[in-house]
Design a protein that fits this description.
The protein is 90% helix and 0% strand. The chain is mostly helical and 29 residues long.
């Protein structure tokens, strides 16, 4: 779980668009 959070933070810093996509995937799951 901590790893997922770290990846989420990295992606959020890199590209907000990817963060939105990732959020959609998380909501789908």
């Amino acid at each position: 779980m901590k790893l997922n959070v770290a990846i989420y933070v990295v992606i959020k810093r890199c590209t907000p668009t990817l963060t939105f996509v990732l959020s959609s995937i998380v909501l789908k799951k």
